[in-house]
Amino acid sequence: MRNQSAALREIDAARCVGRWSAVGPLAARLTRHESPGQVFSLIVASEAELEEHLAAVEWDPQEHWKDEGARHDAQDGARLTVRYPMVISGSGRLGAIEKQLRQAGRQTMTEEEEYQYKVVLAKVRFHAADFAQCKGAIESLPVTIGGESSLSPAYAKQLYMAQMVMRGIALEMDGDLAAAHAVYETAVREFRSKLSPQAAVVVPRGSEAGSGPGNHEELVNWPEEALYRRAMLSLALGDKATGLRQLESYICHMDGAIPATFRAFRRLRANRLYMEIVRQGLAADPAAGVPRELRSSVMASHRRHMALLKALYAFPKANEAHAEVLDAVDCAAQDWELVGAFSRPDSLRLLEIMYEAAHLTHNSPRVLRHLVHALIRFGDYHEASLALGTYRMLVERQLEGAKKAVSAAAREGTGARGALDTNNVESINSILRTAVVGARLFFVHLASAPECLSLVHFANGLIEDVDARDPKHEVMPEVPHAVKAQLALWKGAAHGLLAQRSRDPDNRADHHTAALQLLQQAAAQCPDLYDAHYYLALEQALGARDIAAATEAAKQAVALDPRRLEAWHLLALLSTARKDFAKAQQICDVAMRQSEWWDVYCEIEQGAQEADVAEQPTGGLGLGLGLGVPGAGDAAATTTTPATAGGRGTATAATPGSTESGMDFFDIAMTRLAIEGRLNGYNACLEAQPRLFALYGRVYGPAIGSADDIDTASSAMEGGGGCIDALAIGSLRAGRAGPVARRRLSSSQISGKRSLARSLARSVLPRHARYSSHGGDQLFAPSATDDALPQEARPASPGPRLERDSTGGGGPLDASDDGHKQAESPKRQRSMPHLRQPSASSSAATPETPAEAYFDGLVQIAGRAGSGSGAGAGAGGRAAAVAGMHGSKGVYYTAVLTRLGRQRAEAKRALCALWLSTAAAFAALQRPGEAAGATSEALAACPESPEALTMRGRLAVAQSKHMSALNEFHAAVSLEANNIRASVGLAHVEYLLGRRDVALGLLKNITRAHGWSDPEAWYWLGRLERELALQQAGPDGAADARGEAARAQTLARALEYMEYALDLECSQPVRPFSILRP
Q: Which residue among 458, 531, 618, 987 is the one 20 to 30 A from 1032 at the CA level?
């Protein structure tokens, strides 16, 4: 008896885990121990033979379940395609096994033996597709699990699930879906009641061959089948809520299956159906907010979907597209928009999916298109430009292939449409819209006008080619006017940027004319396009000095989108150009009320006991300006904090809006501060400074306090620990991993080094030369041995100390406390496609400012920025440093442009500008010591700022320290050759030093190039021309006949220059229009 019990336990264990090759010998042992066990031994041996035969069957799960979960609309509602398990009808081996089982049925059996006999016999008939006989074998069996079996205490539960699933499938075949669903519900409930809480519901079984994925996957797993069919029948019966919950339960249970690739394709179909139903529910009520749990569930479903795709598909072969992956990418991009997943971590999850898809499709243009959008949203502009270059290269190849196919089809008389379909070409509409996004990327984020023009020219050429080949648009639809308008917009904006940078008057005039024509064309083609009116107004103000036309265009932009502050800011500057400072201040007040940062500004004012400023009346301003903005004069209507991007979710109190909108708000607040100084004097300007410093901490605190190593997509993915291979098991709605350990796909399905199309290349620099490439710490940090800008001797700050906002953490926002930390490595990176195929079009550099430069000497220049103590303090040393900057080429450096890096750089610039406005106020009040202290603070905040060095030079001029001023202006021009204030200051100092010929040459170059619209430059040029004319006369004022004509011409030029300077000064804004350029 003891040996029999041991044999039964071994048989039970072997049947549970699927070791069918061991069941036969164990059954033979049972027969030897006791002759009454012969019936049970025969049943067990027959079942083992059946399972081994099933495990050896080769089948294609993808072909079997290719349309699983497909929904069909019918008159009686939506119907689902739910395939039955794989059967092998016509197998002679199954007939032999059934014959062997019948021998056991002829003998006397106990109740338990009879139960197992009927279930195993039904399994044989089920797999032989004899469903009527299968139903007859089990219809008398109980539908509940009875007491514990003495023969098979554990495996009896699996037999119960088998007979219940077969019973339910038989009812499905009879069309009784409700009864079948009730059977599955009962089976799952009874089965779970007999399991411990820690036990897995689904345990893949089979032999060594049958337990694996692919063609030898287990034909049917009874608990898995019950869970799946229960959910699918709930959906088929119209109970969407219950079906969705049960489908989610099935997916979560299967996440814990080992191996993780078990039923991968069916799980893929179930997951796709789940996402479709959720997407349909969200689209039905777009105004409703998306709960955080549902957003996390949707994102987790897409990550699971990509992991399953990786388990099923390998690197594509030639002419293999993996359409399943492409569809998944489209759905992921759509769902991220639908649920409003716009945060940085959410964008990072989308990027992981896109990179995995790029690897599975070998950089399909369709995937790269979504990747470009995701990278821009994440803020890695450099990587986005590289992905865009690869997209353009692949699209051009596809278009060439399509042209050849269409030409061949035309010659053969077959049809152009079929030729295009077979070549799987990216749609023309998608290419053009991606070109529009790319043009905006290059212009707004990378400030690269040539790259913007190149992309727009490519898109316009494509439009012309389409119109030439298909003039009636029979094959390809006509390009929408909105797309053409956007292409004209960015082309015109790029020409405007080139006009501003051009040093040649003729070239500048050509660019300006082209910019105006294209921007006017864009505004005419699409009157609702905000950017067209805004950039048209900016170009009219910057390039043409047409204040009236610029004001009209800016009003139209404001009326189109009052929430965007750029047009408001331009409108305020245009009012200051007309010297209407009171109206400009009102415009700033109304504009600031449009922003979600207005409440923060009011809190700061209340904290400073200046609530009366927040209550300043603005009624009727919108009507008086003719803006056409609804409620522009109603403060109560404009102080409502809007929702965040996408209309889903609300902003928190600590961070009411994005940093980008906060930067625009801070800029317009700075303009209002300058207007305040013009209206109420510089003392009032100084009184308002503390509010600006507090606002600075709230706006730029998150960017300053963020980690240095997460500004690029690759570093964020590497450092965040995210892995698309790892599926967290647990509550999807909670968005967290459950108690079960994370499962990975098998090593044969994934790459050990995660070979994705992501940034992996880094330049290797000497350790002493590795400085932070953008933001955070000082870019050109002076060494401790520099004699300039002594930190210990820096004068006390005249302004308030800045405390970092709670969102940023840390201490005071003081550049002297930041230290001069050296980065581990420069952040120069390239994406995987560009490592394989470098593209010349991927550069984000401007013509005048190369993207790759050598910066050895700039540290010395910035370090000596404050050395104004003597005439020789910087003359020789700084000149040598400037000369050495171009002579030394020991460091190869390229800045990587990201949103976070741009925000950090903008934070340095904004803090520097804030200190410089304080210095200007002190200087206007004749308080040079405090002005010098504020300038030193500005240099400490941004040592490479030419504006701060220019201010220091102006202060030196006021104190008659001409050589010190010369050094400061030289350093400023070395840092930014196009800085007008530094160039004019340099010419002024040369004039004061008696070198009038040098000053005259500088001013002629300035007014011909970037200073053509600067009144101060023209004034000094006219003054020098007048003095030159006076020098042409004799000592007594007389002149000979030959010199009289030259003198008259010089005086005429001087008068013309002075009149032009006066005309420019009459239209000069309180801050230059160029601050609104990207």
A: 987
The span from the CA of 578 to the CA of 589, in Å, is: 18
Our CA angle for 506, 512, 516, nearest 5°, is 150
Dist. CA 895–CA 886, nearest whole Å: 18
Q: Is the dihedral of CA 465, 471, 474, 480 positive or negative?
A: positive
The total of other beta-carbon atoms located within 10 Å of residue 886's CB is 12
3-state helix, strand, coil in the chain (%, to 5): 65, 0, 35
- Which burial class, exposed, middle or buried, applies to 1004 when counting CB atoms under 10 A from its CB (0-12, 13-18, 19+)? middle
CA 831 to chain centre: 15
- Helix (H), strand (E), coil (C) string for 540-587: HHHCCCCHHHHHHHHHHHHHHCCCCHHHHHHHHHHHHHCCCHHHHHHH
Does residue 619 come out as left (phi exceeding 0), alpha (psi in the -120 to 50 range) or beta?
Answer: beta
The alpha carbon of residue 995 and the mean position of all alpha carbons in its chain are separated, in whole angstroms, by 54
Look at residues 409, 316, 408, 411 and name the one whose alpha carbon lies nearest to residue 366. Answer: 316
Question: Cα–Cα distance between 947 and 954 in angstroms, integer?
Answer: 10
Instruction: Calculate the dihedral angle through the C-alpha atoms of 587, 590, 593, 598, rounding to the nearest 10 degrees.
Output: 40
Query: Torsion-angle region of residue 473: left (phi > 0), alpha (psi -120 to 50) or beta?
Result: left
pTM here is: 0.78
* pLDDT digit string, tens, across residues 473-494: 777 788 999 999 999 999 999 9
**Shortest CA distance to 977 belongs to which of 935, 999, 1009?**
1009
CA dihedral 981, 986, 992, 998 (to 10 degrees): -130
Residues with pLDDT less than 50, the chain: 74-77, 207-214, 421-423, 610-655, 726-894
Eight-state DSSP code of residue 333:
H
